[in-house]
């Protein structure tokens, strides 16, 4: 029983580590201006600041990574779960906004990033949040 709990704890930490790495990678891409689409929005230039390509999202991903690191280091009961739920919300909103941006862009843009965020980031974050939540009880 103890070995099973220790193995689950290692798995929770590894999943959280993967999410930290993903958020930091996106934050670094924004830092180097690689994650932002360069295609202009047609007919709706006012949407540009709120869509997923705005540099603000680099700060959001960095903040989520810092929150995940704090949750991983302290392992206080609510913090890892809250951090994972925040990660899921970030991936969901960011991915949807990038899909909207891709639909409104005049040039063809790759939708691989937002699709990976929605298909990979959101489920991974929810899985990790569920794991930390069940660990707390």
Present the secondary structure layout:
Elements: H1 2-31, H2 56-74, H3 78-104, H4 112-136
Helix pairs in contact: 1-2, 1-4, 2-3, 3-4
What do you see in this structure?
The chain crosses the membrane at residues 15-36, 56-75, 82-104, 110-129. Keywords: Membrane, Transmembrane, Transmembrane helix. The chain is built from four helices and no strands. The chain has one domain. It is an all-alpha fold and 137 residues long. The radius of gyration is 17 Å and the shape is elongated. It is 74% helix and 0% strand. The model has no long low-confidence stretch (mean pLDDT 80).
Distance between the termini: 16 Å
Overall shape: elongated
Backbone CA Rg: 17 Å
Number of E-state strands = 0
The overall number of domains is: 1
- What's the tally of helices? 4
> Order of SSEs, N→C?
HHHH
Mean pLDDT: 80
Strand content: under 5%
Given as residue ranges, the uncertain stretches (5+ residues, pLDDT < 50) are none
Helix content: over 70%
In terms of structural class, how would the helical and strand content be classed? mainly alpha
Main beta-sheet strand count, sense and barrel state: none
Question: What would the keywords be for this entry?
Answer:
single chain; 137 residues; mainly alpha; 74% helix; elongated
